[in-house]
Amino acid sequence: MKRNAFTLVELLVVIAIIGVLIALLLPAIQQAREAARRMQCTNHLKQYGLAVHNFHSSHRALVPAAVSRYRPPAQLLLLPFMEQPGLWEVMMERTGFLRGGQAGETNGRFWHELPDEIKQAFGTVSFFKCPSRRAGYSFNDAATVSNPGTNEAPDWIDLEGIPNGPRCDYALAMTSAPDANPENYSFFSWFNYQDIGQIANHRSPFRLAIVDDGTENWKGRDTMAWWSDGTTNQLIMGEKHVPAAALNACEGGRSTVSTTLGSTTYSWDCGIAFPSDQWREQHVARGATTYHPDMAYDVIAKLPTVGERENSDRVGFGSWHPGICHFLVGDGSVRPISITTRPTIIARLVDTKDNYAVELP
Fold first, then answer.
1. Which of 28, 226, 291, 307 sits in a 20 to 30 Å window from 12, CA-based?
2. Is there a domain that residue 357 lies in?
3. pLDDT tens figures, 168-223
4. Which residue range is the domain that position 72 belongs to?
5. Are 221 and 210 in contact (CB under 8 A)?
6. Which of 332, 270, 242 is closest to 111 using CA atoms?
7. Contact indicator for 353, 226 with CB cutoff of 8 Å
8. Within-domain flag for 329
9. What pTM was computed for the model?
10. Residue range 271-309, pLDDT digits in tens
11. Residue 249: inside a domain, yes or no?
12. φ, ψ (nearest 5 deg) of residue 62
């Protein structure tokens, strides 16, 4: 009786074909997953855009970059307009965080007095995170420079070293007036509210609030009329660059403390509850500046590896999505911008008073 069966060669050919099909299918699956993550990231920025417009409608003013350098940044001020009224009420209950005064009486105690479940609630807010970069809950909870990871209430020196709070993958776009050469935008401390001259020199879409110092009273400084190029030509927010090697790295400051990052480097990925001046503000806002040519500064990182664990003010924005970085436009739309876009174009699209008619790339 004749029996039908595969020969060994035929079996090997079938296995080889299956292997080739799997090899072809896996990249397609990965691309589909990345496309879904990219769409979700786009939606997160769109939520910020809607919240900015709703805040403007309610307060007749743009959301401030921060109430002051010791008080909430825009990302937290927008919570009530992003379906997070519960977390906003938690903040309101800790009035020291909104009142100002001495730094040791503000956000450090606000954050460290929170129970763990509330900290995790802040850390799980979806629109704080790009799904291509991180998942789960993420916040920085290092209480002190000398004893990181504890729940001790820090003093001002400790807060100066480590900003705490939920981590956020989206940063406000900031710039100042260029120098005599319009190609050279400069850097200064955007959140130094004590220097009125610096506030006047801000050309960013969001500036600091007008505050009644030592109280909870504050109001927005600008309306959308501040965006003189119009809402459709104004970049206001973008994906923050965090190198893969520095993800969740928050271990102190450039000169405050010697850390495993080195005493001359910055931490890339700290919390956003502490929008203070100097290097700490870069967790809330990033510079869309070109600096001078000899500074080797890029506005958009070419790769997620750029910077490794060193010098986090050398590049402001960057994405883990291949080839592009998402930016939020003033009209609420989100634009994927190529990583090869000239830095000066980004700077001018962020600059509210440059008098240049620059089209979105």
1. 28
2. no
3. 999 999 887 766 565 666 555 566 555 556 677 788 899 888 877 666 778 888 99
4. 12-350
5. yes
6. 270
7. no
8. yes
9. 0.81
10. 888 776 666 788 888 888 765 555 556 788 888 888 766
11. yes
12. -70, 150
